[in-house]
Amino acid sequence: MLSGLSWPMVAALLVAGVLLDLLLGETRRFHPLVGFGNLAAAIERRLNAGAARVPRGALAWALAVLPLTALAAWLCDLAGAAAHAVLLYFCIGLRSLRDHNLPIAAALQRRDLPAARALTGRIVSRDTHDASEADLAKASAESLLENGNDAVFGTLFWFAVAGGPGALLFRLANTLDAMWGYRNQRYLHFGRVAARIDDALNYVPARLTALSYVLLAPGIGGKRTAWRCWRRQAPAWSSPNAGPVMASGAGALGLALGGAARYDGVVEQRPPLGRGVPAAARDIERAWRLVARTTVLWLLLAALSALAVVGARYA
After folding, report:
1. CA-based nearest residue to 176, from 196, 159, 158
2. What residue spans of 148-268 are helical by DSSP H?
3. Are 191 and 181 in contact (CB under 8 A)?
4. Which of 55, 240, 250, 251 falls 20 to 30 Å from 137 in CA-CA distance?
């Protein structure tokens, strides 16, 4: 039992939350995670000053995340199963990944580089103002593979563990890592706790995501390539979770990702990801399909395990 819910109910709510996301997409006027970002920025401005930056960062994380998670748990106890599904809808970002990345592919396919650069600049932190088609396709494909874990599979995992409050906790922690997890003068110490908590929460989901990408790679050869890329390339990445996800995903797609990318005018040479050809416009759609198929796989496994529980109950 989870928050008063049986596993078959949790599996049904997983499907319901994903369907709500695919049908409704992001809220048009106000998204809760945007509001949370504003709250987190206000807390950071107040606490990220003076000495003891690491303890201040830990306090900031607790103030931003714990009251909202507790409130979510109270609302779920009050409103029941429907509240869990609504929370999952607000936390998951499957349709958002499609809506932000497929227009990049469409712009590249019609040779509209200015539009593709502008669209890509909205989803990545690297410079895109003079990026080539290959650079833009690579950035979008990498974003899809990594955020498949952050916005979708990690959220589904923690929903399965702790219901709507678990999904919310994960997404809030992931948002704070995205905001505070930089290794620069401002955030190196203040954001350390946020980065470590996100690493811990993401550890299991990231490896399940990487394994899913391996399983869904085409043919035995594709699966072997994805597995070898994961095992050999992931350790070279500074992020313990992004490495497995992106390396296995790139290998599954037969793409050569990673390598050079420019941030704030400085070219950064990153470790290689995957093996194969450079990314092109059509590979953005292929990366999206891999994320979508992985979502179906996870929901199918949840449904089958729920049926097994029901069957055992009545056996």
Report:
1. 196
2. 154-180, 192-215, 219-233, 242-253
3. yes
4. 240
pLDDT (mean) for 284-292: 98
Model confidence over 56-107: pLDDT tens digits?
999 999 999 999 999 999 999 999 999 999 999 999 999 999 999 999 999 9
Cα 288 from Cα 290, distance rounded (Å): 5
Distance CA(91)–CA(280), nearest Å, equals 30
Q: Which residue has the tokens 């050999």?
A: 232
Q: Within 10 A of 247 (CB to CB), how many other CB atoms are there?
A: 32
pLDDT on residue 87: 95
Distances (CA, A) of 16 to 6, 22, 153, 173: 15, 10, 15, 23
Angstrom distance (rounded) from CA 44 to CA 206: 27
- Scan for tokens 């500074």, then name that residue: 238
Beta strands in the chain (DSSP E): 256-263, 266-274
At 102, the amino acid letter reads L
How many other CB atoms are found less than 10 A from the CB of residue 90? 20
Name residue, tokens 């088609």.
133
Mean pLDDT, the chain, integer:
94
The CB density around residue 38, as the number of other CB atoms within 10 Å, is 9
Instruction: Give Cα separations from 217 to 19, 129, 245, 254 (angstroms).
Output: 25, 33, 13, 9
Identify whether the C-beta of residue 223 lies closer than 8 Å to the C-beta of residue 259. Answer: no
Closest Cα to residue 109, out of 281, 250, 284? 281
Straight-line distance from the first to the last Cα atom of the chain, in angstroms, rounded to the nearest whole number: 19
Residue 2, SS3 per DSSP? strand
Token pair of 117 as six digits: 């650069």
**Would you state the pLDDT for residue 1?**
45
